[in-house]
Amino acid sequence: MIKDKSIQAFLDELAGKAATPGGGSAAAVMGAMGAALVSMVANFTVGKKGYEAVDAEAAELLRRAESLRRQLTEMIRADVEAFDGVMAAYGLARDTDAQKAARTGAIQAALKKAADIPLACAALCAEVIGLTRPMAAIGNKNVISDAGVAVLAAEAALRSAALNVYVNVGAIKDEAFVADRRQRLEQILAGSEALTEEVYALVKGRL
Amino acid sequence: MIKDKSIQAFLDELAGKAATPGGGSAAAVMGAMGAALVSMVANFTVGKKGYEAVDAEAAELLRRAESLRRQLTEMIRADVEAFDGVMAAYGLARDTDAQKAARTGAIQAALKKAADIPLACAALCAEVIGLTRPMAAIGNKNVISDAGVAVLAAEAALRSAALNVYVNVGAIKDEAFVADRRQRLEQILAGSEALTEEVYALVKGRL
After folding, report:
1. Which is nearest to A157 in space by CA: B68, B26, B80?
2. Are A136 and A199 in contact (CB under 8 A)?
3. How many domains does chain A have?
4. Is the ipTM value over 0.85, yes or no?
């Protein structure tokens, strides 16, 4: 499993001559780091002296951040598989008309999956960004900069995932599918940049 | 070595109850991912048909990106060590006046190192951002979205490192040191956001 590779090996493969892992997996790793840092701030808040009033809220943020972290970690692998699926479809035989039609159908189906994985990744990242705001507001001041890193990582992951959606829908012929996914993506992106800057400013103010 | 840990283990430790690894290491990982993705786009450009005219430029970008990647990967460990140095200094004995003076000196020295590591990380990330612009302009269109993910990762890393500089200079009493490092940081940050948006738009336009 790609999540079991060392950071060094992952970076080496990212930099290398193979198409996977690529930006889609990098986006999932960044999103998972964002969720992990929300968890870290929550872990320094739950049960800590001076933070009794926000204990339950921090515990709930921790629970939600850990759920998002698990799902985003899963996306690292899912993105590679989706891309490999597209490559496999392009590699199908195209000697006869029947083969050509089957290959075209397989490519289109694989591209839809390759668009839906980063779209799901983007939605998870937007949820992480949503958690950083309350976490930055109530979290332990000693580690509050980590809430700032969390929102920056999640926002970079969200916009990175968006690029991977754009790439894949660009080759999809089903116009209704493309319009639907583009609309969903714009809804996910809407407001995330402003919220990120709000959280960053909130963190800087509490440093 | 922390870079030899698996992605899963790194994320678990990031999320956990220990102060390290924290946002400083996460910033270094994101910066290294940015550099790795510049290398990936360069690797898909050097020696590729249709990109003969930019071959030498892409090879030079690859060389510089790999150098930055090595330095940023090293920063993952350096940030943990610098933080641990601060914690160790805070833990020194303070029973006598001499011990108290020695402890204060040790804390201040450790904080200076803990500010200079993320400052160096920020400078490296700014260099990565600088590489993404020519890479996005000349790189193989098939992997151009990865140049977009590269710039987003590097910019998130830069701003994350900046938060860690702010945190540490906040506790440093040497006003000349603080003023100098703040000035250097602002110089590094200046223009990076605008350049990031420029590269992102360039990538979106080439998708």
Report:
1. B26
2. yes
3. 1
4. yes
Residue B1: its pLDDT value, please? 86
pTM over 0.90: yes
Chain B partners within 8 Å of A200 (Cβ): 159
Q: Mutation test of the interface with chain B: which of A72, A149, A197, A202, choosing the one with the most B Cβ atoms within 10 A? A: A149
Has residue A171 been placed in a domain? yes
CB A86 within 8 A of CB A122: no
User: B143: domain CATH number?
Assistant: 1.20.120.680
Q: Which amino acid, B96?
A: T
**pLDDT tens-digit map of A45-74:** 999 999 999 999 999 999 999 999 999 999
B-facing residues of A in 64-123 (CB < 8 A) are 65-66, 69, 73, 76
Which residues of A fall within a CB distance of 8 Å from B47? none
Place of tokens 């994985």: A117
Does residue A12 belong to any structural domain of this protein? Answer: no
| Closest-CA residue to A191 (of A153, A160, A158) | A158
Residue B109 lies in a domain: no
* pLDDT score, position B185: 98
pLDDT tens profile A157-186 = 999 999 999 999 999 999 999 999 999 999
Residue B40 belongs to what domain range? Answer: 22-82+115-206
